[in-house]
Design the sequence.
């Protein structure tokens, strides 16, 4: 699991059916001290829980595909939780 901040939204008109109702966001990966690390990436939001400005937890690779109710989707990263605070 990785920490990130939603910094933008991606709009796609044509999507494969596995992600048809899913939103996509641009996420800036963060350290636990809220410092930017690496380059921003596009992350799927299968539960439609996040918005621009939210801090989130996201997963990558096989874990990302399993974040969908169908158990599989053609994505490399997916939001799984919203972050209230980091202690």
Sequence:
């Amino acid at each position: 699991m990785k920490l990130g901040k939603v910094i933008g939204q991606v709009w796609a008109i044509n999507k494969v059916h596995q992600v048809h109702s899913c939103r996509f966001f641009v996420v800036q990966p963060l350290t636990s001290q809220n410092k930017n690390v690496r380059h921003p990436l596009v992350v799927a939001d299968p539960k439609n829980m996040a918005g621009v400005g939210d801090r989130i937890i996201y997963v990558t690779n096989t874990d990302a595909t399993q974040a969908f109710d169908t158990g599989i989707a053609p994505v490399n990263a997916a939001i799984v939780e919203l972050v209230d605070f980091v202690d």
User: Anything to note?
Assistant: Residues 20 and 43 are 14 Å apart (CA to CA).
